[in-house]
Amino acid sequence: MEYQKKDRITDTILKIVSLEKQAETYSRSLSGGMKRRLLIAKAMVHRPPILVLDEPSAGVDVQLRQNLWNNVKLLNKQGVTIILTTHLMYEAQEMCDRIAIINKGNLIALDTTNNLLDSIKTKKIIFKVKKINEINPLDLNGIRFSYKSKNEIIVSYEKKKHKIDEIINYIKNTGMEIYDISTDEGNLEDVFIDLTKN
Description:
By secondary structure, the chain is α+β, with helices and mostly antiparallel strands. About 35% of the residues lie in helices and about 25% in strands. The chain has seven helices and eight strands. The protein is elongated.
């Protein structure tokens, strides 16, 4: 029995990689980015239980990348194990449940994404103030101050050693008027830098 065109898995796969408009096109006439997406489509045709994607978003524009990631997440929810290689830390952080970090051919970390992020020792707070007053870093037991602009102070501290309210109080006690506070919890790039710095 011949399958109806609408029932073919290929149509779904072409949508996943945003190539449905090129369904009747010869592969040799596709652009480099399209050929890359076609390779992903070919890998999915047989509905494999494990799909290995080697830097699939390289050379893909933002909108296509978003479409690709949404569909990869959908495949993963349906039970397909996705192994992704990438140099983009934010991509790994956003997409993966478990992460292996390889440096110079050596496996230096293998853990859940949450555990790797929890391993970040330092945290940053960015204060926007009306006017910066002098700060004596000797008073604060390892808390580091740097200045992003004439109105922004970046405070780095060990999150297990200090509490955010003590730092806010310290800034207030110097007489500085705070008009905005933002925090930076760190990301996978910080983990990578920390693991590879030695």
